[in-house]
Amino acid sequence: MSESLALVAPGKPLLNYLPVGLFGSVMGLTGLSVAWRLASARYGVPEGIALGIGGLAMIAFVLVLAGYSIKLVTAFSAVRTEFRHPIAGNLFGTVLISLLLLPIVLEPFAHRFAQILWATGAAGMMLFAWLIVSRWMSDRQQIAHATPAWIIPVVGLLDVPLALPTLGLPPMSGLMVLTLAVGLFFAVPLFTLIFSRLVFEPPLPDALKPSLLILVAPFAVGYSTYSVTAGQTDLFAESLYMLTLFVLAVLLGQLRTLPLCCPFRISWWAVSFPLSASSIAALRFAAVRPGFFTDAIAVALLALATLVIAALLGRTLLGVGRGELRTLST
To answer: 178-217 burial, b for 16+ CB within 10 Å, e for fewer?
Structure first.
């Protein structure tokens, strides 16, 4: 008993190196589960694939939450420093986005629990977005800190409406429009600011290069959220989808040499959710605009997201098995 208490003693920091951005793995796995569920409905692939990936997402969430809770209890100063960091602090939004996405996977099995998770995530995401925007406006920021992670706190509001159609909650059209409007409105200046930093400032450090793919998220998630909120795919929604394909093509070209130039790190999980969100958008679009090219793009993006996330998961588990978690977290 005394040994177990010593294990979580505040005086002995444990897992103080664990980055909050590891919750991005939960986002990526959950998004991939949703994508395979859409593929099951459209192409008749076994629904068990989506269920299996959803189970992995839940396991990942529990493990990462447990690990980060240990860090919070035993190394609170490290958590506080991470939260105050102008780049890493934005990644706390990945915890809340995970709470917004997991209910889509959980709803068939734990309806009430899924509702509670979503409500917690929605309230937390609204508060977090307000807090980060207030921080940006209160303190002078440096252009070097304008990285793709800045997309997460406010544009992450776009994830709020996604689970609502399946949760059986009272109509929340006002909340859906609010989060859609704020998410899309802030996506424009943030994307412009980050793009300007990428063009005119020194290149991103190797550790941050995978986060480039986050720039796809406003358009991919924006398409899905707009379609869910408006209940249709109109010209504006179609424009968001086309932007998704263009930005994704550009960024994949930029990241094609990543496995050769940079050693694997936990930060590579930043590519998982944008790829999943892009495949979801493609599958949704193929369902309303069926055709050879739309289906081919949807299948290709689903295959790409699946292969990349499988590789990330395998490499992460291998690193954990080898005791390399501290190294992979740097």
So the answer is: ebbebbbebbeebbeebeebbeeeeebeeeebbbbbbbbb
0.90 surpassed by pTM: yes
Task: Summarize the confidence of residues 119-139 as an average pLDDT.
Answer: 94
Structural domain includes residue 6: no
Torsional sign, CA 62, 63, 67, 73 = positive
Structural domain total, the chain: 1
Residue 2 lies in a domain: no
Q: Alpha carbon of 57 to those of 52, 125, 264, 293: distances in Å?
A: 9, 20, 21, 30
192 falls within a domain:
yes
pLDDT of residue 36 exceeding 70: yes
Cβ contact 33:302 at 8 Å: no
Q: Is the pLDDT of residue 178 over 60?
A: yes
Task: Give the Cα separation of 18 and 316 in Å (integer).
Answer: 13
Question: Lowest-pLDDT range, 16-20, 206-210, 224-228, 304-308?
Answer: 206-210
- Give the mean pLDDT of 60-76: 95
Residue 176 belongs to some domain of the structure: yes
Q: Residue 62 is part of a domain; what is its CATH number? A: 1.50.10.150
